Amino acid sequence: MKKLESNRKEELEKKARDIMVSAMQRFNSSQIAETTTTTVSLSSDEMKGRIIGKEGRNIKALERLTGVDVIVDETPEAIIVSGFDPVRRQVAKLALEKLMADGRIQPARIEEMVEKAKGEISEKMKEAGEAAAYDAGVIGLDPKLIELLGRLRYRTSFGQNVLMHSLESAHLAGMLATELKADVAVAKKAALLHDIGKAIDHEVPGTHVEIGRRILEKFGIDEEVIKAMQAHHEEYPYETIESSIVQAAEAVSAARPGARKETLENYLKRLEELEAIATAFEGVEKAYAIQAGREIRVFVTPEKIDDIKAYKLAQEIAKEIEKELKYPGEIKVTVIRETRAIEYAR
Predict the structure, then answer these.
(1) How far is residue 103's CA from residue 164's CA, in Å, rounded to a whole number?
(2) For residues 68 and 303, what is the distance between their CA atoms, to the nearest angstrom?
(3) How would residue 314 be classed by pLDDT, with cut points 50, 70 and 90?
(4) What is the CATH number of domain 262-337?
(5) HEC profile for 100-147?
(6) Alpha carbon distances (Å) from 2 to 7, 9, 10, 298
């Protein structure tokens, strides 16, 4: 009996390995780890001077409005947009492309193009969600759920693009489900939506699995799909075979060599914490961590913070950073207060 049991176990393990390898071999996708820079191509090097503007005013305006660093170096016909938030980088890139096409590059025009770029990004998110659902063969999703899925295009996990990771997991889960005679549609849908909670985890308290469960319940997604997605981090028990398949597919996608970077995630977390400290103060409108976290720019509401309070606020934020965070070197805190008076002559 013992001999039969040990032989059977070896056969099962070999079969499991064969199934896993077969799925991985059939779905061979390129894996690009996200970085914190984006390159913008220029029509000519002469454009660099126009983007910089007189005494650097254009670059200053763009950095203030988007919260990124614009690096103009010796690289021919290219400038680099640096920032830890992929959405901000994309907004800055789109705005720059629009400005170059328009030809009029000055602070007022930059402000207008940044607003347009922000509107376009939300459209691009929706398109990315639709493309991912179509590619995975998942149909019947609510348009609002597709929009949330598209948000993952600009979200990373340990440097891995979350939407690409979800799509890869969906394809792997579908193949594993086919091999194991499980429900392919349930496995694919659950794998595609397993990280949906990450789309709003900055805005809503709770783990991304718990947030994801609530989102799927709200949009009336089938209970079998929810059971299959909720166990991918072992927070919930494996209730169905599909839940084990989703967990395995997710793990395979995340474990690909070069797919994830631990250090990048820690760096991004530190910059997010830096911004959170500044925005927690009353009167702060927005805060941007720049220069790889060596500087934080804080924009205040002029009606609430006057010039004297701005100096005091900079000191308070610096003290709070010293108390809450551990970091090498020093962090420069810049508080910016801008007053605008607008009137129309009719």
Answers:
(1) 35
(2) 26
(3) very high
(4) 3.30.300.30
(5) HHHCCCCHHHHHHHHHHHHHHHHHHHHHHHHHHHHHHCCCCCCHHHHH
(6) 9, 11, 12, 70
Residues 237, 252: Cα–Cα separation, whole Å: 20
Q: At 83, phi and psi to the nearest 5?
A: 180, 150
**What's the CA gap between 335 and 304, in Å, rounded?**
13
Q: Strand pairing of 156-157 and 295-300?
A: unpaired
Condensed to tens digits (0 to 9), the pLDDT of residues 140-161 reads 888 889 988 988 888 877 777 8
For the segment 90-134, what is each residue's pLDDT rounded down to a tens digit? 899 999 998 888 888 888 899 999 999 988 888 888 899 999 999
Distance of CA 60 to the CA centre of its chain: 25
Q: Do the beta carbons of residue 197 and residue 207 sit within 8 Å? A: yes
Nearest one of 42, 41, 94 to 65, comparing CA atoms: 94
One CATH from 1.10.3210.10, 3.30.450.20, 3.30.1960.10, 3.30.2350.10 for 2-30+137-255: 1.10.3210.10
Distance of alpha carbon 318 from alpha carbon 212, whole angstroms = 36
pTM: 0.69
Q: Which residue has the tokens 């609002």?
A: 144
How far apart CA 254 and CA 231 sit, in angstroms, is 16
H or E segment and range at residue 69: strand 69-71
In this structure, the strands spanning 78-82 and 37-41 are: antiparallel
37-123 fold:
Ribosomal Protein S8; Chain: A, domain 1 (3.30.1370)
Residue 290 β-bridge partners:
295
